[in-house]
Write a structure and sequence with these properties.
Blueprint: H1 3-22, E1 31-39, E2 47-51, E3 56-61, E4 71-77, E5 82-91, E6 94-100, E7 103-108, E8 111-116, E9 121-127, E10 135-140, E11 146-150, E12 155-160, E13 163-169, E14 180-183, E15 186-190, E16 194-198, E17 203-206, E18 216-221, E19 227-231, E20 236-241, E21 247-253, E22 256-265, E23 268-277, E24 282-291
Antiparallel strand pairs: 1-24, 2-3, 3-4, 4-5, 6-7, 7-8, 8-9, 10-11, 11-12, 12-13, 14-15, 15-16, 16-17, 18-19, 19-20, 20-21, 22-23, 23-24
């Protein structure tokens, strides 16, 4: 083959490869479309989670942050219809949630609740070993290890035997620890900061793409391991952190956006979010459709 043709062939192959790389979903910023919004008599909703097995959405609610028995979980259809507003009543201030093998685990101030999704009742409560932990979010690894953040103690707890045991605490790195995700040997945590924890080495490093931001609420990884976060505040913002550690504001609204769940429903990716306005006492659940360009 003549040298000129060989060079041209190589350039064509490299060009196709370059185009292919640029079109990979994990390298693109997803487009956001509002799918639906459900406004109901929620009480300061904090977290939303999707039950893939039963195709329900659960929402945590609470009146203030106190052990007052006024908190509850709501049950919605996957299209946002409220099926039972007071599905699990008489809780205190339930916040973050996670599901593992037909069991729903819910953080509720100073205990972790275990709710059996078949019988739909609380079957066990796991206390924490410290005072004023302000338990916030729950993450469960593929192997069933359960982790809970403590915003009041700037800490992370693990469910060991019958109680939540302190495994990480750092007033700076884990300040106001809030959202948490467990993924392949790591914990990803956001609070005032964003932090990666390598479980084997027990090392903590900043989430590089979030260094210029602070005061986060929820976080999640999608199927491409891309990171999404919300910030605490009366005005809601959903951020996306790409593989190049650059953060982009995907969606913003006047009402707050709290903890959320990234889910696959009928082959499409949705972000299901707790939302509201404390001054106007307007609360709801928002579903955003994420589409890769």
């Amino acid at each position: 083959m003549p040298k000129q043709l060989l060079i041209i062939g190589l350039l064509i192959v490299l060009g196709i490869g370059s185009i292919s790389c640029r079109q990979e979903p994990e390298d693109s910023i997803p487009e956001i479309t509002k799918a639906w919004y459900t406004n109901a008599n929620f009480a300061s909703p904090e977290s939303v989670i999707y039950d893939q097995a039963r195709e329900y959405i659960y929402v945590s609610n609470g009146v203030g942050y106190a052990k007052n028995g006024q908190g509850f979980l709501s049950k919605l259809s996957e299209s946002g219809q409220v099926l039972e507003l007071q599905w699990i009543p008489q809780l205190n201030r339930p916040t973050g949630m996670a599901i593992f093998e037909d069991q729903l685990f819910v953080a509720d101030i100073d205990v972790l609740l275990q709710i059996d999704l078949v019988s739909e009742r609380v079957v066990q409560q796991f206390p924490v070993t410290q005072t004023n932990p302000m338990l916030n979010d729950v993450a469960i690894s593929d192997g069933g290890d359960i982790y809970v953040t403590g915003s009041g103690t700037h800490a992370i707890y693990q469910l060991l035997q019958d109680s939540l045991q302190l495994i990480y605490q750092d007033d700076d790195t884990l300040q106001y620890a809030n959202g948490i995700v467990a993924a392949k040997g790591y914990l990803h945590v956001v609070g005032w900061n964003g932090t990666n924890i390598e479980l084997e080495r027990k090392t903590m490093t900043p989430i590089a793409g979030l260094k210029e931001l602070n005061d986060f609420d929820g976080l999640a990884l999608d199927k491409h391991k891309r990171l999404f976060v919300t910030q605490v505040g009366e005005k809601g913002g959903l951020w996306f952190c790409d593989p190049n550690n650059e953060a982009s504001l995907l969606y913003e609204q006047d009402d707050y956006l709290a903890d959320f769940d990234l889910v696959e429903i009928d082959g499409q990716t949705y972000c299901l979010m707790a939302s509201g306005n404390h001054q106007e006492k307007r609360y709801g659940v928002l579903a955003l459709l994420l589409t890769d360009k």
